[in-house]
Amino acid sequence: xxxxxxxxxxxxxxxxxxxxxxxxxxxxxxxxxxxxxxxxxxxxxxxxxxxxxxxxxxxxxxxxxxxxxxxxxxxxxxxxxxxxxxxxxxxxxxxxxxxxxxxxxxxxxxxxxxxxxxxxxxxxxxxxxxxxxxxxxxxxxxxxxxxxxxxxxxxxxxxxxxxxxxxxxxxxxxxxxxxxxxxxxxxxxxxxxxxxxxxxxxxxxxxxxxxxxxxxxxxxxxxxx
Length: 225
Prior knowledge:
One of its GO terms (molecular function) is glycosyltransferase activity. InterPro entries: FucosylTrfase_pln, GDP-Fuc_O-FucTrfase. This is O-fucosyltransferase family protein. One of its GO terms (biological process) is fucose metabolic process. This protein is an alpha/beta fold. The protein has one domain. The chain has 12 helices and 5 strands. The chain has helices at 2-5, 7-11, 19-24, 32-41, 60-70, 77-80, 83-86, 93-105, 117-126, 141-149, 155-173, 197-201, and strands at 49-52, 74-75, 109-111, 135-137, 221-224. The chain has a 5-stranded parallel beta sheet with strand order 2-1-5-3-4. The radius of gyration is 19 Å and the shape is globular.
């Protein structure tokens, strides 16, 4: 799909693109099937509601089928809103993205499966909601690709690896680097403090508390980008 849309980029002789190498390096987005396997391995059951924050999916009916079998409660902005409600947004990609952003922001869990500013903004923003305890899952795609390619791995061992990856995400989610640890590779969007002046002036104003169920063993709403 990218080769079709970005033909010139793929034909540049000075910038060859090696798809297999990019995937091993963790630079490729995960497929819906891979996302489903990862979430099941992490312990999310088929009662989990999932909101897909995305644009047009490549061969959506075909590639979403296995994910829908694992998680039947899958929603998008098109399935939740009427055509009349979406009409004012349809001509503006930024407005459609804002809808996705708002749902992802207040979901109990946010899962990012690709790069870009969208997940970076969300990860930084979500550090200041749910009293600082919002859950964001950013999988180690380099490790995940190797596990998915291991045809001999048992489901039990895969679940153990996914559980360890989830614990690592929980640990990293609580870390906010100190000033001296910031470098060019540290995103101010992902870690808005201490540089963000408005948050320095009024931390409490951004610590939004949103009620959520305490009885459910898994999140009521999980969003994936």
